[in-house]
Task: inverse folding
């Protein structure tokens, strides 16, 4: 089995614990094996593990992952953003996988997601998380299902390679 996702210290488990406690009618489902956690993240993980509405399904074959994302009501990217954590510099490929499902996406405020804010709800404060999730659950997420899928297609590997090929061809032909 190839482990597609790792639950590690970039995930804001204290945030998820807070959301799960205050919204017991919401279920939070995680797919992936447990990786390295620091003390803060481990504490949040432990709280989550004790809650009845948080589910850790463990590692899954990478081919199964799209099915899980497609069956969520809302896909969340809860990354730690406080201080100078390294998550500020990531580019989450799951963003495009989530958009491809057509389901609403709510994300932490990380620089790589900001260009997609027409299609992704970005929680810039802790208080915005429940508001944005609730809006998505009510059908008022960022953009429409079709718009999210279109953005995903525009950012597929084939589309990206095509754009890179054009750039390289232009460089060769116009040095």
Result:
């Amino acid at each position: 089995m190839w482990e597609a996702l790792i639950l590690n210290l970039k995930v804001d488990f204290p945030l998820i614990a807070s959301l799960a406690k205050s919204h017991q009618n919401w279920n939070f489902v995680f797919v992936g094996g447990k990786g390295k956690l620091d003390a803060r993240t481990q504490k949040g993980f432990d709280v989550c593990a004790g809650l009845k509405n948080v589910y850790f399904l463990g590692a899954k074959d990478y081919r199964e992952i799209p099915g899980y994302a497609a069956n969520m009501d809302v896909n969340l990217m809860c990354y730690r953003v406080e201080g100078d954590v390294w998550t500020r510099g990531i580019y989450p490929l799951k963003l495009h996988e989530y958009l491809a499902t057509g389901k609403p996406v709510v994300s932490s405020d990380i620089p790589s997601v900001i260009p997609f804010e027409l299609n992704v709800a970005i929680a810039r404060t802790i208080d915005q998380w429940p508001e944005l999730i609730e809006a998505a659950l009510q059908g008022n997420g960022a953009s429409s299902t079709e718009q999210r899928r279109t953005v995903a297609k525009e950012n597929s590997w084939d589309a990206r390679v095509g754009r890179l090929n054009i750039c390289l061809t232009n460089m060769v032909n116009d040095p």
Summary: The beta strands are 6-7, 28-30, 33-34, 54-56, 75-77, 105-108, 121-123. The first strand starts at residue 6 and ends at 7.
